[in-house]
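Backbone Fold Data
Goal — fold tokens
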Amino acid sequence: PPPPPEAIYQSPTSKSCITSWSDGGWTRDFDAVEANAGGVEDCAQNCFNAGYTYFGLECPRNNGAQVYCQCAESIATSIPAEGQCDHENVQGSHCSGPFQVNLGPVTVNLGAHSTGSVYMTVKGTPGYTNGSPEAYCCAMNKEMVEYGNDPTTFAPVFRCHNGNLDQGPWLLMDGSDSNFMAQTGPASCPGVAPPAVSTLHNPPDGWAVKYDAGRCDYNSANTGIVDYDGVADTAACAALCTSKPTCSFFATKARETDVFCAQYSGTCESVFQDDGMVTYGPIMEMAGYVFKADGRCDWTAPGMSIVDNDSVGTIQACADLCDSKASCTSFSYKDGFCGQYAGPCSTFDTSEDGFRTFGPIVLAGYEFQTNEGRCDDTTATTALIDSEAANTAQACADRCTVRNDCTYFSYKLGTCEQYKGDCASTVAEAGYSTFKATEFVGYYLHSTAGRCDFSQPGMSLVDNARANTALECADLCNTKEQCTAWSYNEGASFCGQYNGPCTEIHEQEGLITYGSVTVNGYNLGSVTGRCDFDAAGMSIVDQGPAAGVQACADLCNSKAQCSAFSYKPGFCGQYSGPCTQIFDEAGFMTFVVRMTG
């Protein structure tokens, strides 16, 4: 095979430039270096030797005699300034260049006025992904340890350290940054990824590893100690925590004759490092479902009914049972008991401790497709736009929403994949849920080929404005009574708002167009909430699942007393009365019967 390309200093994919070093996490521990190839190497080596992950350069000056050298352990808080670190960005500034220098096969940016470049301190080979966190740590002459888990997703977090667990420096190695995974390091370094957390600890049913090298810091805000005990194993500790109403997390550590079991209340948002201690938290999200509340679904509430009661081995088996039954929308689980229910499950019976209830992940503007896999991007009509880290399905939906061409996303804990096209088929992969973009609240996707042609009969321009996201553009249209459609271009932050049916599209690359949702026989009454059925003259007729706005309208039409309905993806509330008052609730839009005669 051909030899690998020359290793180079690589810039993180999304932040090649940042605003001034003072904007987060950067230090200037070393003297300025010369603005040439040798100076770049000196800066990188200085930062590497000090244990930093990144180095950067800012403000080349004095005919190349000096440029600031700065280091950072993390760039998470840095402010991106794309395309501003390779040329004179402020005319007449003392940062007069040179702004770039050739280093081997690549050109390295030297920064500019109040703008720095960003590079990894360890050279990597682009396109080579046979590295691992372990290999990267080896390249840094540091040992890799499995430090813990992301507090929200429980995904494993790896860190490199210099041999002293108490002092660090710690380098985050969560595998979400492709640049970390691309470091091959010296030939003697291993290239095998470490075992997953699940193979190391086998968490009890209903629990996931939260921290892998410490316990909850009960001296921090919103966390307290419930009790300490000696138990036989981790499962016994989980059972103890479950039996105590205030216990929300527990930690275990093996001793000579038993297992130390600490139980905590609160949120456990920070960890006290303790080698050998493993902290567990409750599962909050699984494929297609999200934790709703402690307690059992109250199936006696309006719109609720029991689908089935079964005995199963795990909470995941309970979720799978609910999936297998078309009418099941929520389930409650406790110690092998699995109750499956139809309806919104908005009230809970808390008279019996230990029950936890999960409901479908419902996202405004998205329709649930499957929880058995991700979009197949090998087909001709589907393409992967991006794959990045996200803590929740809602965070993944937000990433998809701000992209003009995103039509589907697939999500599993910690991973968000966004696709364009029709997602005609899915690839079976455990843990993934797939959602289809349907509409902004009150709007439907009318065209991806251009903007409304407002020169056509019946059309007029209401306003042109700037909007940072498509959602902002929708909100602008909402504020103007005459606005019935809008067109948006993400690259230009352009938001055109129009009045009329928008039957003709003026083709223009980069623009998408949305029109107001209309349902025969109904007027759109609100896009900010649902009917307030506690108001005078109002009452609930029925409520339950619905596959779309029209399906909800059909349900209302089928009931003589129904005069209004409120809909958000997956839920349809039907009401009797004038619906003159709206209860603000994100994701809902409300329609009222159109009066004639």
The chain has nine helices and 47 strands. Residues 402 and 573 are 29 Å apart (CA to CA). The longest helix spans residues 37-49. Confidence is low (pLDDT under 50) at residues 1-5, 125-136, 145-200.
